[in-house]
Write a structure and sequence with these properties.
By secondary structure, the chain is mostly helical. The chain has a single domain, classed as MetI-like fold (Orthogonal Bundle), CATH 1.10.3720. The chain is built from nine helices and no strands. The longest helix is centred in the last third of the chain and has 31 residues. It is flat and about 70 Å long. The protein starts with a helix and ends in a 5-residue tail after the last helix.
């Protein structure tokens, strides 16, 4: 949960930046955002994990398993969330930006106080799905030596040879975690913006 939540928070920040950069129209920097998004969305998450785990190691950059998983999940989350945020920005009418600017608000004030709060409401459910994805994909960490839930399960199963029992319990734990995330997201949606989100 720790690596999944951290990767989600980093992914949200990077995704917002990538979405804004891609929509900026500045060709000198939009290529960077487009390349990141295309690689993150169109290559396997496992390949991205191996890049940070073994690809960087080939150039003398060795990260511990926690950082490998954190970097890979953050990279992946940022790519998906960037497109989610871009859709959210496009759903906010341009007239709101013009109205805020006509009232004397700066661009940063307009985005932080008017535009981004609306975008967060629009993309709330896709962000919840991405959080679930982040939790489930953290299980790949066992392939680079990260002893998270799946890694610990594999370790205990190899010691006791009770593979079915351990992985069955692990599957149930993942199921419960996902249901708790979905239930918590519904509660938050009802509490804070029930008029905007079903």
């Amino acid at each position: 949960m720790q690596v999944a939540v951290l990767a989600m928070l980093i992914g949200i920040l990077l995704g917002l930046v990538l979405a804004l950069v891609r929509m900026s129209g500045n060709r000198s920097i939009t290529w960077f955002a487009i390349s990141w998004i295309e690689i993150a969305r169109n290559t396997p998450a496992l390949l991205q994990l191996f890049f940070f785990g073994f690809g960087l190691g080939a150039y003398g950059i060795h990260l511990d398993p926690f950082l490998i998983v954190l970097c890979a999940l953050s990279f992946n989350n940022a790519g998906y969330l960037a497109e989610t945020f871009r859709g959210g920005f496009q759903a906010v009418p341009d007239t709101q930006l013009k109205a805020a600017r006509s009232l004397g608000m700066t661009v940063s004030q307009t985005y932080t106080r008017i535009i981004i709060p609306q975008v967060m409401r629009i993309v709330y459910h896709p962000m919840t799905n991405q959080m679930v994805w982040s939790v489930l994909m953290s299980s790949l960490g066992m392939l680079v030596g990260f002893r998270e839930l799946s890694g610990e399960t594999q370790f205990m199963a190899s010691k006791t040879y009770r593979v079915f029992e351990f992985f069955l319990v692990t599957a149930i734990i993942y199921y419960v975690i996902v249901k708790l995330i979905l239930g918590g997201s519904k509660l938050i949606a009802w509490r804070y913006f029930k008029n905007e989100v079903d």
